[in-house]
């Protein structure tokens, strides 16, 4: 049984600029039913945000640009990694997601939920 990324569900995130207010990103995430946002800079991905991270930040009563609350620990994958390696990578590095790149283009993200879903699905087949 192969466990390559190509068989793992790849989530399409929303992409925002670093100056975007957290409340605007959360509103868009809810509207588009997304759980992850990638923060884009001039040279590509500079951060990521989970819906939970934004909600936690907004619970203080202050709306801030996403650059102030984003995770800057960004790891990319090519699409050929083993599913269990992805699980280890995400958990050990406390990541919201890993970014799937196809060449220099962002193809999507893989979240812990995506990996666990794939492992469970394979266990049942």
UniProtKB/TrEMBL annotation:
Residues 9-64, 70-125 form the CBS domain. It comes from the Archaea. Pfam families: CBS (PF00571). InterPro entries: CBS_dom (IPR000644), CBS_dom_sf (IPR046342), CBS_domain-containing (IPR051462). Keywords: CBS domain, Repeat. Gene3D superfamilies: CBS-domain (3.10.580.10). CDD domains: CBS_pair_SF. SUPFAM superfamilies: CBS-domain pair. SMART domains: CBS (SM00116). This is CBS domain-containing protein.
């Amino acid at each position: 049984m192969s466990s390559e990324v190509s068989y793992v569900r790849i989530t399409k995130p929303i992409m925002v600029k670093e100056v975007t207010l957290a409340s605007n990103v959360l509103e868009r995430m809810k509207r588009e039913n997304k759980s992850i946002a990638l923060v884009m800079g001039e040279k590509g991905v500079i951060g990521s945000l989970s819906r939970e991270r934004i909600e936690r930040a907004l619970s203080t009563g202050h709306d801030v640009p996403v650059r102030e609350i984003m995770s800057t620990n960004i790891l990319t994958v090519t699409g050929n990694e083993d599913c269990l390696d992805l699980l280890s990578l995400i958990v050990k590095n406390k990541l919201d997601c890993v970014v799937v790149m196809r060449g220099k283009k962002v193809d999507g993200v893989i979240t812990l939920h995506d990996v666990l879903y794939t492992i469970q699905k394979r266990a049942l087949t």
